[in-house]
Amino acid sequence: MVTMIGDLIGVSGAATELTKTRDDIQKLAAPIRRDMARAVGDVLIATRGESSAQRSALVAWRSEQQTLNEDRYGSHLHSASSRAAIEVEEIAPTFDESAQPVRGFEVLNACFDAALARYPQVLAFGQDLGKLGDVNQGFAGLQAKYGELRVSDVGIRECTIIGQAIGMAMRGLRPIVEIQYLDYLLYAMQILSDDLATLRYRTKGGQMAPVIVRTRGHRLEGIWHSGSPMAGVINLLRGIYVCVPRDMTRAAGFYNTLLRSDDCGLIVEVLNGYRLREPLPTNIGEFTVPLGVPEVIRKGRDVTLVTYGACCRIALDAAEQLAGVGIDVEVIDVQTLLPFDTHGRVVQSLEKTGRVVFLDEDVPGGATAYMLQQVLDVHDGYRWLDSPPRTVSARSHRPAYGSDGDYWSKPNREQIFRTVYEMMREAEPSAHPPID
Prior knowledge:
Elements: H1 2-9, H2 15-27, H3 33-46, H4 53-74, E1 102-103, H5 104-118, E2 122-126, H6 142-146, E3 151-153, H7 158-170, E4 174-178, H8 189-196, H9 199-202, E5 212-217, H10 230-236, E6 241-243, H11 248-259, E7 265-270, E8 277-278, E9 295-298, E10 303-307, H12 311-323, E11 329-333, E12 336-338, H13 345-353, E13 356-359, H14 367-378, E14 390-392, H15 402-407, H16 413-427
Parallel strand pairs: 2-3, 2-4, 4-5, 5-7, 6-7, 10-11, 10-13, 13-14
Antiparallel strand pairs: 1-8, 6-12, 9-11
Helix pairs in contact: 1-2, 1-4, 2-3, 3-4, 5-11, 7-8, 12-16
Protein backbone atom coordinates (compact mmCIF):
# COMPACT_ATOMS: atom_id res chain seq x y z
CA MET A 1 0.00 0.00 0.00
CA VAL A 2 2.84 2.40 0.85
CA THR A 3 4.49 1.56 -2.46
CA MET A 4 1.28 2.32 -4.33
CA ILE A 5 1.01 5.70 -2.62
CA GLY A 6 4.61 6.37 -3.66
CA ASP A 7 3.78 5.51 -7.27
CA LEU A 8 0.82 7.90 -7.16
CA ILE A 9 2.95 10.72 -5.74
CA GLY A 10 4.94 10.81 -8.98
CA VAL A 11 1.91 11.58 -11.16
CA SER A 12 -0.41 13.48 -8.80
CA GLY A 13 -1.01 17.18 -8.44
CA ALA A 14 -1.38 16.60 -4.67
CA ALA A 15 2.14 15.24 -4.18
CA THR A 16 2.80 17.27 -1.03
CA GLU A 17 -0.29 15.97 0.78
CA LEU A 18 0.35 12.42 -0.37
CA THR A 19 3.97 12.52 0.75
CA LYS A 20 2.92 13.60 4.24
CA THR A 21 0.35 10.79 4.41
CA ARG A 22 2.93 8.21 3.29
CA ASP A 23 5.53 9.47 5.76
CA ASP A 24 3.01 9.49 8.64
CA ILE A 25 2.12 5.85 8.13
CA GLN A 26 5.76 4.85 7.80
CA LYS A 27 6.48 6.43 11.19
CA LEU A 28 4.08 4.04 12.93
CA ALA A 29 5.91 1.23 14.71
CA ALA A 30 3.18 -1.33 14.07
CA PRO A 31 0.50 -0.01 11.70
CA ILE A 32 -2.77 -1.91 11.79
CA ARG A 33 -5.40 -2.31 9.12
CA ARG A 34 -7.36 0.68 10.40
CA ASP A 35 -4.29 2.93 9.94
CA MET A 36 -3.87 1.80 6.35
CA ALA A 37 -7.56 2.26 5.59
CA ARG A 38 -7.47 5.80 6.92
CA ALA A 39 -4.33 6.62 4.94
CA VAL A 40 -5.80 5.36 1.69
CA GLY A 41 -9.01 7.24 2.40
CA ASP A 42 -7.02 10.49 2.85
CA VAL A 43 -5.12 9.85 -0.39
CA LEU A 44 -8.27 9.27 -2.41
CA ILE A 45 -9.86 12.43 -1.02
CA ALA A 46 -6.73 14.45 -1.85
CA THR A 47 -6.69 13.12 -5.42
CA ARG A 48 -10.42 13.34 -6.12
CA GLY A 49 -10.99 14.37 -9.71
CA GLU A 50 -7.66 12.93 -10.87
CA SER A 51 -7.41 9.97 -13.23
CA SER A 52 -4.40 7.68 -13.51
CA ALA A 53 -3.48 4.02 -13.53
CA GLN A 54 -1.74 4.50 -10.18
CA ARG A 55 -4.85 5.95 -8.55
CA SER A 56 -7.04 3.20 -10.06
CA ALA A 57 -4.71 0.61 -8.54
CA LEU A 58 -5.17 2.19 -5.12
CA VAL A 59 -8.97 2.24 -5.56
CA ALA A 60 -8.88 -1.46 -6.44
CA TRP A 61 -6.70 -2.20 -3.37
CA ARG A 62 -9.15 -0.37 -1.11
CA SER A 63 -12.11 -2.28 -2.55
CA GLU A 64 -10.31 -5.60 -2.07
CA GLN A 65 -9.44 -4.73 1.53
CA GLN A 66 -13.02 -3.66 2.26
CA THR A 67 -14.25 -7.06 1.10
CA LEU A 68 -11.62 -8.94 3.10
CA ASN A 69 -12.29 -6.99 6.27
CA GLU A 70 -16.04 -7.24 5.96
CA ASP A 71 -15.49 -10.98 6.01
CA ARG A 72 -13.04 -10.74 8.92
CA TYR A 73 -15.18 -8.53 11.13
CA GLY A 74 -18.76 -8.53 9.84
CA SER A 75 -19.67 -11.94 8.45
CA HIS A 76 -21.84 -14.79 9.72
CA LEU A 77 -24.47 -12.81 11.55
CA HIS A 78 -26.79 -15.45 10.10
CA SER A 79 -26.16 -18.76 8.40
CA ALA A 80 -24.29 -18.65 5.10
CA SER A 81 -24.80 -22.36 4.44
CA SER A 82 -27.11 -24.03 1.93
CA ARG A 83 -29.56 -24.50 4.83
CA ALA A 84 -29.85 -20.79 5.61
CA ALA A 85 -33.41 -19.79 6.49
CA ILE A 86 -33.59 -17.21 3.70
CA GLU A 87 -32.74 -19.97 1.21
CA VAL A 88 -35.51 -22.37 2.26
CA GLU A 89 -37.78 -23.10 -0.66
CA GLU A 90 -41.27 -21.65 -0.42
CA ILE A 91 -43.98 -24.32 -0.39
CA ALA A 92 -47.52 -22.96 -0.56
CA PRO A 93 -50.18 -24.35 1.79
CA THR A 94 -52.85 -26.54 0.26
CA PHE A 95 -56.43 -26.80 1.49
CA ASP A 96 -59.38 -29.16 1.34
CA GLU A 97 -62.15 -26.84 0.17
CA SER A 98 -64.80 -28.98 1.85
CA ALA A 99 -63.14 -28.95 5.28
CA GLN A 100 -64.47 -26.74 8.06
CA PRO A 101 -62.18 -24.04 9.50
CA VAL A 102 -60.59 -24.86 12.85
CA ARG A 103 -59.48 -22.67 15.73
CA GLY A 104 -56.04 -21.13 15.45
CA PHE A 105 -54.51 -23.18 18.26
CA GLU A 106 -55.58 -26.35 16.44
CA VAL A 107 -53.55 -25.27 13.40
CA LEU A 108 -50.48 -24.89 15.59
CA ASN A 109 -51.18 -28.16 17.39
CA ALA A 110 -51.22 -30.00 14.07
CA CYS A 111 -48.01 -28.23 13.03
CA PHE A 112 -46.15 -29.20 16.21
CA ASP A 113 -47.48 -32.76 16.01
CA ALA A 114 -46.12 -33.07 12.47
CA ALA A 115 -42.75 -31.59 13.49
CA LEU A 116 -42.31 -33.96 16.43
CA ALA A 117 -43.22 -36.90 14.21
CA ARG A 118 -40.91 -35.89 11.36
CA TYR A 119 -37.83 -34.73 13.27
CA PRO A 120 -36.65 -36.98 16.13
CA GLN A 121 -34.24 -34.25 17.25
CA VAL A 122 -37.10 -31.79 17.90
CA LEU A 123 -38.17 -31.24 21.50
CA ALA A 124 -40.25 -28.53 23.14
CA PHE A 125 -40.35 -27.07 26.63
CA GLY A 126 -41.68 -24.04 28.46
CA GLN A 127 -43.95 -22.89 31.25
CA ASP A 128 -47.18 -24.94 31.27
CA LEU A 129 -46.25 -26.41 27.90
CA GLY A 130 -46.11 -30.09 28.84
CA LYS A 131 -49.02 -31.45 30.86
CA LEU A 132 -51.32 -28.50 30.15
CA GLY A 133 -50.29 -28.22 26.48
CA ASP A 134 -49.44 -24.50 26.91
CA VAL A 135 -51.81 -21.77 28.05
CA ASN A 136 -53.40 -21.61 24.59
CA GLN A 137 -53.34 -25.36 23.87
CA GLY A 138 -50.87 -25.36 20.97
CA PHE A 139 -49.21 -28.47 22.46
CA ALA A 140 -52.36 -30.07 23.85
CA GLY A 141 -52.04 -33.86 24.00
CA LEU A 142 -48.49 -33.92 22.63
CA GLN A 143 -46.75 -34.79 25.90
CA ALA A 144 -48.96 -37.86 26.21
CA LYS A 145 -48.14 -38.79 22.60
CA TYR A 146 -44.37 -38.13 22.56
CA GLY A 147 -43.35 -38.38 26.20
CA GLU A 148 -42.10 -36.02 28.89
CA LEU A 149 -38.56 -35.84 27.53
CA ARG A 150 -39.70 -34.31 24.24
CA VAL A 151 -42.60 -32.14 25.48
CA SER A 152 -41.94 -30.89 28.96
CA ASP A 153 -42.68 -28.28 31.60
CA VAL A 154 -40.11 -25.99 33.17
CA GLY A 155 -40.13 -23.48 35.99
CA ILE A 156 -40.65 -19.73 35.76
CA ARG A 157 -37.11 -18.85 34.71
CA GLU A 158 -36.95 -17.41 31.20
CA CYS A 159 -33.18 -16.91 31.21
CA THR A 160 -32.58 -20.55 32.09
CA ILE A 161 -35.02 -21.70 29.40
CA ILE A 162 -32.97 -19.94 26.74
CA GLY A 163 -29.67 -21.12 28.21
CA GLN A 164 -30.82 -24.75 28.15
CA ALA A 165 -32.02 -24.34 24.58
CA ILE A 166 -28.67 -22.93 23.43
CA GLY A 167 -26.78 -25.87 24.94
CA MET A 168 -29.13 -28.41 23.39
CA ALA A 169 -29.03 -26.77 19.96
CA MET A 170 -25.23 -26.64 19.97
CA ARG A 171 -25.25 -30.40 20.42
CA GLY A 172 -27.51 -31.14 17.47
CA LEU A 173 -30.98 -31.03 19.01
CA ARG A 174 -33.71 -28.69 17.70
CA PRO A 175 -35.45 -27.12 20.68
CA ILE A 176 -38.67 -25.16 20.31
CA VAL A 177 -38.77 -23.19 23.54
CA GLU A 178 -41.66 -21.12 24.80
CA ILE A 179 -41.49 -17.78 26.56
CA GLN A 180 -45.08 -17.59 27.72
CA TYR A 181 -45.73 -13.94 26.79
CA LEU A 182 -43.84 -11.39 24.75
CA ASP A 183 -43.60 -9.17 27.85
CA TYR A 184 -41.67 -11.94 29.60
CA LEU A 185 -39.02 -11.96 26.88
CA LEU A 186 -37.45 -9.09 28.82
CA TYR A 187 -36.29 -11.53 31.49
CA ALA A 188 -34.36 -13.53 28.87
CA MET A 189 -33.09 -10.61 26.81
CA GLN A 190 -29.54 -10.60 28.15
CA ILE A 191 -28.77 -14.21 27.22
CA LEU A 192 -30.72 -13.93 23.96
CA SER A 193 -28.68 -10.89 22.96
CA ASP A 194 -25.24 -11.76 24.34
CA ASP A 195 -25.22 -15.49 23.65
CA LEU A 196 -27.78 -16.71 21.13
CA ALA A 197 -27.84 -13.75 18.73
CA THR A 198 -24.05 -13.47 18.60
CA LEU A 199 -22.90 -17.11 18.72
CA ARG A 200 -22.43 -17.67 14.99
CA TYR A 201 -20.95 -14.19 14.49
CA ARG A 202 -18.50 -14.48 17.42
CA THR A 203 -17.14 -17.77 16.07
CA LYS A 204 -17.23 -16.72 12.38
CA GLY A 205 -19.59 -19.56 11.64
CA GLY A 206 -17.70 -22.09 13.73
CA GLN A 207 -20.59 -22.68 16.14
CA MET A 208 -24.35 -22.39 15.83
CA ALA A 209 -27.42 -22.86 17.98
CA PRO A 210 -30.54 -23.05 15.78
CA VAL A 211 -33.00 -22.42 18.62
CA ILE A 212 -36.61 -21.58 17.81
CA VAL A 213 -38.12 -19.26 20.42
CA ARG A 214 -41.88 -19.22 20.55
CA THR A 215 -43.88 -16.49 22.26
CA ARG A 216 -47.18 -14.64 21.97
CA GLY A 217 -48.01 -11.01 22.29
CA HIS A 218 -49.53 -7.78 21.02
CA ARG A 219 -53.16 -7.07 21.71
CA LEU A 220 -54.90 -8.34 24.84
CA GLU A 221 -56.42 -6.71 27.91
CA GLY A 222 -53.85 -6.53 30.68
CA ILE A 223 -50.80 -4.48 31.56
CA TRP A 224 -48.41 -7.45 31.84
CA HIS A 225 -49.68 -9.45 28.86
CA SER A 226 -50.32 -6.84 26.16
CA GLY A 227 -46.92 -5.31 25.52
CA SER A 228 -45.36 -5.12 22.09
CA PRO A 229 -41.75 -4.00 22.67
CA MET A 230 -40.71 -4.85 19.14
CA ALA A 231 -38.10 -2.10 18.70
CA GLY A 232 -36.25 -3.44 21.72
CA VAL A 233 -36.43 -6.94 20.28
CA ILE A 234 -35.23 -6.11 16.78
CA ASN A 235 -32.42 -3.81 17.94
CA LEU A 236 -31.10 -6.08 20.69
CA LEU A 237 -31.44 -9.37 18.84
CA ARG A 238 -29.67 -8.81 15.53
CA GLY A 239 -28.56 -12.31 14.58
CA ILE A 240 -31.97 -13.84 15.36
CA TYR A 241 -34.69 -13.77 12.72
CA VAL A 242 -37.91 -12.16 14.00
CA CYS A 243 -41.18 -13.40 12.52
CA VAL A 244 -44.46 -11.60 13.23
CA PRO A 245 -47.25 -13.66 11.61
CA ARG A 246 -50.78 -12.30 11.47
CA ASP A 247 -52.43 -15.69 12.01
CA MET A 248 -51.60 -19.21 13.10
CA THR A 249 -51.35 -20.63 9.59
CA ARG A 250 -48.49 -18.27 8.80
CA ALA A 251 -46.96 -18.97 12.20
CA ALA A 252 -46.99 -22.68 11.33
CA GLY A 253 -45.31 -21.90 8.01
CA PHE A 254 -42.54 -20.03 9.81
CA TYR A 255 -41.96 -22.94 12.19
CA ASN A 256 -41.62 -25.25 9.19
CA THR A 257 -39.21 -22.83 7.50
CA LEU A 258 -36.96 -22.50 10.54
CA LEU A 259 -36.97 -26.26 11.17
CA ARG A 260 -35.65 -26.80 7.64
CA SER A 261 -32.85 -24.30 8.29
CA ASP A 262 -29.83 -24.01 10.58
CA ASP A 263 -30.72 -20.48 11.75
CA CYS A 264 -32.22 -19.38 15.05
CA GLY A 265 -35.48 -17.47 15.09
CA LEU A 266 -38.16 -15.85 17.22
CA ILE A 267 -41.82 -16.26 16.28
CA VAL A 268 -44.34 -13.91 17.92
CA GLU A 269 -47.82 -15.39 17.67
CA VAL A 270 -50.88 -13.13 17.84
CA LEU A 271 -52.17 -13.45 21.39
CA ASN A 272 -55.84 -12.89 20.57
CA GLY A 273 -55.84 -15.18 17.53
CA TYR A 274 -55.98 -18.64 19.06
CA ARG A 275 -59.78 -18.85 19.04
CA LEU A 276 -60.24 -17.34 15.59
CA ARG A 277 -61.01 -19.89 12.92
CA GLU A 278 -58.74 -20.61 9.97
CA PRO A 279 -58.61 -23.30 7.30
CA LEU A 280 -56.23 -26.11 8.21
CA PRO A 281 -53.64 -26.79 5.47
CA THR A 282 -53.56 -30.38 4.28
CA ASN A 283 -49.77 -30.13 4.10
CA ILE A 284 -49.46 -28.68 7.60
CA GLY A 285 -46.03 -30.22 8.20
CA GLU A 286 -44.53 -29.34 4.82
CA PHE A 287 -45.59 -25.87 3.69
CA THR A 288 -43.26 -22.96 4.36
CA VAL A 289 -43.50 -19.18 4.54
CA PRO A 290 -40.43 -17.32 3.23
CA LEU A 291 -38.60 -14.83 5.44
CA GLY A 292 -38.36 -11.21 4.34
CA VAL A 293 -41.26 -11.36 1.89
CA PRO A 294 -44.22 -9.05 2.64
CA GLU A 295 -47.73 -9.91 1.45
CA VAL A 296 -50.24 -7.48 0.00
CA ILE A 297 -53.44 -8.41 1.85
CA ARG A 298 -55.56 -5.66 0.29
CA LYS A 299 -54.86 -3.89 -2.98
CA GLY A 300 -55.32 -0.14 -3.25
CA ARG A 301 -54.20 2.91 -5.21
CA ASP A 302 -54.20 5.92 -2.83
CA VAL A 303 -52.19 5.06 0.32
CA THR A 304 -49.87 2.22 1.36
CA LEU A 305 -50.52 1.01 4.92
CA VAL A 306 -47.64 -1.12 6.26
CA THR A 307 -48.13 -3.28 9.36
CA TYR A 308 -47.84 -6.79 10.83
CA GLY A 309 -49.27 -9.19 13.41
CA ALA A 310 -52.48 -8.31 15.25
CA CYS A 311 -52.68 -4.90 13.55
CA CYS A 312 -53.41 -6.52 10.18
CA ARG A 313 -57.07 -7.13 11.03
CA ILE A 314 -57.48 -3.59 12.37
CA ALA A 315 -55.80 -2.18 9.27
CA LEU A 316 -58.16 -4.12 7.01
CA ASP A 317 -61.15 -2.89 9.03
CA ALA A 318 -59.99 0.72 8.70
CA ALA A 319 -59.31 0.25 4.98
CA GLU A 320 -62.90 -0.87 4.41
CA GLN A 321 -64.21 2.18 6.28
CA LEU A 322 -61.93 4.44 4.22
CA ALA A 323 -63.22 2.84 1.04
CA GLY A 324 -66.65 4.12 2.03
CA VAL A 325 -65.40 7.71 1.70
CA GLY A 326 -63.56 7.12 -1.56
CA ILE A 327 -60.04 6.39 -0.27
CA ASP A 328 -58.48 3.18 -1.59
CA VAL A 329 -55.85 1.78 0.81
CA GLU A 330 -53.30 -0.91 -0.01
CA VAL A 331 -52.53 -2.95 3.13
CA ILE A 332 -49.20 -4.77 3.37
CA ASP A 333 -48.30 -7.35 6.02
CA VAL A 334 -44.49 -7.32 6.28
CA GLN A 335 -44.57 -10.79 7.97
CA THR A 336 -40.98 -10.57 9.29
CA LEU A 337 -39.14 -7.63 10.85
CA LEU A 338 -35.74 -9.35 10.64
CA PRO A 339 -35.18 -9.67 7.75
CA PHE A 340 -37.33 -6.80 6.46
CA ASP A 341 -38.71 -6.81 2.92
CA THR A 342 -35.73 -8.25 1.09
CA HIS A 343 -37.39 -7.72 -2.31
CA GLY A 344 -38.53 -4.11 -1.86
CA ARG A 345 -42.23 -4.87 -2.19
CA VAL A 346 -43.30 -1.95 0.01
CA VAL A 347 -41.49 0.46 -2.30
CA GLN A 348 -43.22 -1.13 -5.29
CA SER A 349 -46.53 -0.22 -3.64
CA LEU A 350 -45.27 3.26 -2.75
CA GLU A 351 -44.37 3.90 -6.39
CA LYS A 352 -48.05 3.42 -7.15
CA THR A 353 -49.65 5.27 -4.23
CA GLY A 354 -47.12 7.99 -3.38
CA ARG A 355 -48.17 7.89 0.29
CA VAL A 356 -47.27 5.56 3.16
CA VAL A 357 -48.40 4.98 6.75
CA PHE A 358 -46.59 2.64 9.15
CA LEU A 359 -48.72 0.98 11.84
CA ASP A 360 -47.96 -1.19 14.85
CA GLU A 361 -48.50 -1.57 18.64
CA ASP A 362 -45.02 -0.56 19.77
CA VAL A 363 -44.32 2.79 21.45
CA PRO A 364 -43.92 5.96 19.34
CA GLY A 365 -40.54 5.89 17.59
CA GLY A 366 -40.38 2.12 17.99
CA ALA A 367 -40.76 -0.47 15.25
CA THR A 368 -42.77 1.96 13.09
CA ALA A 369 -39.65 4.16 12.94
CA TYR A 370 -37.59 1.10 12.03
CA MET A 371 -39.94 0.21 9.17
CA LEU A 372 -39.93 3.82 7.97
CA GLN A 373 -36.12 3.85 7.95
CA GLN A 374 -35.99 0.59 6.02
CA VAL A 375 -38.43 1.76 3.35
CA LEU A 376 -37.33 5.39 2.94
CA ASP A 377 -33.60 5.08 3.61
CA VAL A 378 -32.48 1.54 2.79
CA HIS A 379 -34.84 1.10 -0.17
CA ASP A 380 -34.83 4.77 -1.29
CA GLY A 381 -38.60 4.97 -0.97
CA TYR A 382 -38.39 8.73 -0.33
CA ARG A 383 -38.14 9.20 -4.10
CA TRP A 384 -41.79 8.26 -4.51
CA LEU A 385 -43.35 10.32 -1.71
CA ASP A 386 -46.11 12.78 -2.63
CA SER A 387 -46.99 13.37 1.04
CA PRO A 388 -44.97 13.19 4.29
CA PRO A 389 -44.92 9.65 5.70
CA ARG A 390 -46.94 8.97 8.84
CA THR A 391 -46.68 6.52 11.73
CA VAL A 392 -49.48 5.19 13.94
CA SER A 393 -48.36 3.49 17.13
CA ALA A 394 -49.41 2.74 20.68
CA ARG A 395 -49.04 5.24 23.52
CA SER A 396 -45.78 5.59 25.45
CA HIS A 397 -47.22 3.94 28.58
CA ARG A 398 -48.02 0.29 29.21
CA PRO A 399 -51.45 -0.76 27.93
CA ALA A 400 -54.24 0.13 30.34
CA TYR A 401 -56.52 -2.64 31.56
CA GLY A 402 -59.84 -3.59 29.95
CA SER A 403 -61.41 -2.97 26.56
CA ASP A 404 -61.57 0.78 27.10
CA GLY A 405 -57.97 0.83 28.29
CA ASP A 406 -56.93 -1.11 25.21
CA TYR A 407 -58.83 1.28 22.94
CA TRP A 408 -57.06 4.36 24.31
CA SER A 409 -53.65 2.68 24.60
CA LYS A 410 -53.28 0.90 21.27
CA PRO A 411 -53.97 1.92 17.66
CA ASN A 412 -57.63 1.57 16.73
CA ARG A 413 -59.71 1.76 13.59
CA GLU A 414 -60.73 5.38 14.14
CA GLN A 415 -57.16 6.53 14.69
CA ILE A 416 -56.02 4.84 11.49
CA PHE A 417 -58.99 6.25 9.59
CA ARG A 418 -58.25 9.83 10.66
CA THR A 419 -54.52 9.55 9.95
CA VAL A 420 -55.11 8.35 6.40
CA TYR A 421 -58.05 10.69 5.84
CA GLU A 422 -56.05 13.76 6.91
CA MET A 423 -53.21 12.70 4.64
CA MET A 424 -55.60 12.56 1.68
CA ARG A 425 -57.39 15.76 2.72
CA GLU A 426 -54.07 17.61 2.65
CA ALA A 427 -53.50 16.36 -0.90
CA GLU A 428 -57.09 16.76 -2.16
CA PRO A 429 -58.98 19.13 0.18
CA SER A 430 -61.95 19.59 -2.14
CA ALA A 431 -62.57 15.83 -2.28
CA HIS A 432 -62.22 15.27 1.47
CA PRO A 433 -63.97 17.86 3.64
CA PRO A 434 -63.09 18.15 7.35
CA ILE A 435 -64.66 15.64 9.73
CA ASP A 436 -64.78 17.81 12.87
